[in-house]
Amino acid sequence: MLEKILLLLSLSLSVAEGLCKPGVGEAYKVRFSIKTALGDQAYPWNKNEMFLFRAALAFAMRDFTNGEEFGVSDIHPCNETQRVSFWFVVTRPKTMDLVDKGTVEMAIKKSRNRINGAFLLTDKTLEFDGIYPTLAAPVSPDTPPWLIVFGVVMGAVSVGIIALLVYPLVQRKLKKNMDADDEDSDEETGVKTAENGANDGIYNSTFSDDERFTQM
Amino acid sequence: MEKDGRPNWDSPMQFVLACVSYAVGLGNVWRFPYLCQLHGGGGFLIPYLIMLLLEGLPLFYMELAIGQKMRLGSIGAWTSISPYLGGLGLASVVTSVYLCLYYNVINAWSFWYLFHSFQSVLPWAVCPINSNRTGPTEECEVATPTQYFFYRETLNISSSIEENGGIHTGQALCLVLAWAITYLFIVRGVKSTGKVVYFTATFPYLVLFIYLIRGVTLHGAINGLKYMFTPKMAELANPRAWINAATQIFFSLGLGFGSLIAFASYNQHNNNFQNQAIVVSLINSGTSIFASIVTFAIYGFKATLNYENCLDRMRLLLLNTFDLAEDAISMDSVLEWTEKLNTTYPEQFAQIADKVREGECNLEKELDTAVEGTGLAFIVYSEAIKNMPLPQLWSVLYFFMLLLLGMGSMLGNVTAIITPLRDFKIMSRMSNELFSGLVCVFCLLLGLGFTTTSGNYWFTIFNDYAATFSLLFIVLIEVIAVSYIYGIKRFEKDIEDMLGHRPNWYWKIMWAVTSPLLLIGLFIFYIINYIQGGTPTYQAWNKELVTVTEYPVFGQVFIVLLLVSSVSCVPLTALYAFCRKRKDRAYEKQV
């Protein structure tokens, strides 16, 4: 009895190993770049990390298929290299049927963040060959920020222009009011100054310098 | 105010700063470093300084003298020298109008970039994501994010000059702002301009200094500086280096537009413009050299960064193909590993051999990419800035500096239009503010054409043809007119009247002999170049590829129109003056 079970087990193991062939069928390649991501804090890759990977992937399959009881034994890795990259296939629980690539891809896509988080890695440092990460949607604010700055500057410039245009007019008005007051006070005293008298003279144009340059 | 009612600068310092602000412009930042790189680094300084002495200084001095003596804008000044030469001033005004039309568009772009710097992630640092959210948009993937931001989001450029779309509203808004600020600066004439130039002339130097410190401390900057300062003396034998030095000095000082005449016309009669001319010219050249040191530091940083990124890409490619441990290959050992793997695993290496050849990393090649003009200012610099720590701060500083340089030059450009036109008795009936406003609105409306989708191609036409050939022609006639028609003796006496001493033999020889000869040489060279060049071409942005396309017929006709419209002012006005004199003489005979 025991021998039969042992035989079955070893058979299933060898079958499983036969299942995982790099580059063929439903196998996916995964690549870890731990040292790039974590630098000094990098953890070494060993059997425990591999176990975590298989567990994370089993979780992803369970989550996607809504309850099908995938276990760690349903994830079969092979061809591990020093790069820390290897191929793997997924089989259905309790059978040796391979799960097709499409389903695996969608399961991984759904739980990508969780898998990344388990290893403290990102989409770039934990790569699945052939599965492209879904990038975060761009945040678009209601008013583009540049328009706000533009509005501020434009407002300031408009105020400046209006101020520069209105200021002399205001000054002229104030001056006119002051001149009107002065004239009133002069008339009251009734003094005719020499200046007023000189204006009645004849204007001699011989000495004017108007036509110094050629007329255009 | 002087007795003829002409407004004055508050102090000679304002005049000097106005000239500095006008002369020191975008060309110092984006043309001179390019020429330095093209013509052998530090060695280019030799032809540059020689040309400064031979043509830059004397012509600058001459224009200031004319403006200060005649106390009129370019049209009135040249008419005073000889009634037949009024067309010279008119040609200057026409060229200034063309310049104003397209120059403020650059300021609009600077505003656009400046406003977009107030974001947590600079928009030209990353590509926008495509609709599937699987990666960056296709166009951005092939080009770089900075190129994409400039050509697609800033310009929304069409693929050729014939295809036209609508106006880019963001650009149009920025152009309106640029003209509003220009109006604000010139609305009171020299009174407002004189105060503004204190800021526009000095602040760019502060920013350049800050950038110098930042640039020199960047990783890899030393590569760029070494590249610049190792002179390649062999380049001096190339006549192109000398021609480029001559044209650079010429255009950099802003001669021939009438701005210098206009500025000088507001001077006191006895202002010592001789020293001021020397000071301004030296400051202008010094700024060019200063700016190129900063630019080369930034180049070095960018080239080193690209080179290291390239090495990193190679490293990853090798690691992934041969499944080696991550720390097996370091950045320094990439090249030796490439060799080793090539010999040990030839078949496997052959698979990626193409990629390795394509992505070959070469620091010299990165440094060799010489860029000028808007490409340098808006693409190369923004790329360098996005890689600096705290990029928003550096971006704001840099584009603010570009704005000040551009606005400072605009002051001179617009004054060159307004001053001579206001000298006409008809125009002086209109108020100052109204006239300036009309000029600004006119230029704004025409300038909106540059904000359309094919606008950048029209911009290039204006940039390359509107103010190059005509200026050479104008200044050539100017110097011949002053030396031979007006006469050096009369000119000497006028200067003695203003300064109290005659100009010495250096100036006289330059005006009478050297400068005219140099200008004739440049003139002939331009004509030969134009004829030999065949159909003029431009670089079209066609879905991220830059393709060299020929101008269509209407484009070529337009180029010819641009040139003819300014150059023909001279003979036409001379003819008009001649006809009028004949009529007057006939009338007098009758009477």
Automatic annotation (TrEMBL), chain A:
Q: Which PANTHER family match?
A: COLLECTRIN
Q: Does the keyword Metal-binding apply?
A: no
**Collectrin-like domain: from which residue to which, for each copy?**
24-216
Q: Which organism is it from?
A: Astatotilapia calliptera
The molecule here is called Collectrin-like domain-containing protein
Q: Which GO terms describe its biological process?
A: positive regulation of amino acid transport
Name the Pfam families on file.
Collectrin
Membrane topology classification:
Single-pass type I membrane protein
Q: Where in the cell is it found?
A: Cell membrane
Matches recorded under InterPro entries: Collectrin (IPR042944), Collectrin_dom (IPR031588)
From TrEMBL, chain B:
Any one GO MF term held by the record is: L-proline transmembrane transporter activity
Q: What is its main location?
A: membrane
Instruction: Please give the start and end residues of each transmembrane region.
Output: 12-32, 44-62, 83-105, 165-186, 198-222, 242-266, 278-299, 396-422, 434-459, 465-488, 509-531, 551-579
**Location within or outside the cell:** Membrane
Give residues annotated as binding Na(+): 23-24, 28, 252, 284, 405, 409
For whether the record's keyword set contains Membrane, the answer is yes
Q: Which UniProt keywords apply?
A: Glycoprotein, Membrane, Metal-binding, Sodium, Symport, Transmembrane, Transmembrane helix, Transport
Single biological process term from Gene Ontology: glycine transport
Short name of one Pfam family: SNF
- Is the Signal keyword given for this protein? no
Q: Give the matching InterPro entries.
A: Na/ntran_symport, Neutral_aa_SLC6, SNS_sf
Report membrane topology: Multi-pass membrane protein
What are the record's GO terms for cellular component?
apical plasma membrane
Family recorded in the similarity comment: Belongs to the sodium:neurotransmitter symporter (SNF) (TC 2.A.22) family.
Protein name in the entry: Transporter
Q: Which organism is it from?
A: Astatotilapia calliptera (Eastern happy)
Q: What is the lineage of its organism?
A: Eukaryota, Metazoa, Chordata, Craniata, Vertebrata
